[in-house]
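Item description
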Amino acid sequence: MPLYEYKCADCDRPFELLVASPALADAVVCRYCGSDSVRRLISTFASHSSSDTFAMSAPKSGGGCACGGGGCGCGGH
């Protein structure tokens, strides 16, 4: 089962949820307040290599965002 990250628009709390089917990934409710106004977040992931080190990967954005991070995905260009 895939693990998805969400953020509630009503209580503004992030949470993770194991979803049985990718088709159900957008039909969830907030585990804290029960709201159905949740947004699935773009997740980072860790991969294990043979050298026993972990590498973090994050989606790249167009860069130059308002927060200065460049990889935050806030949509600012």
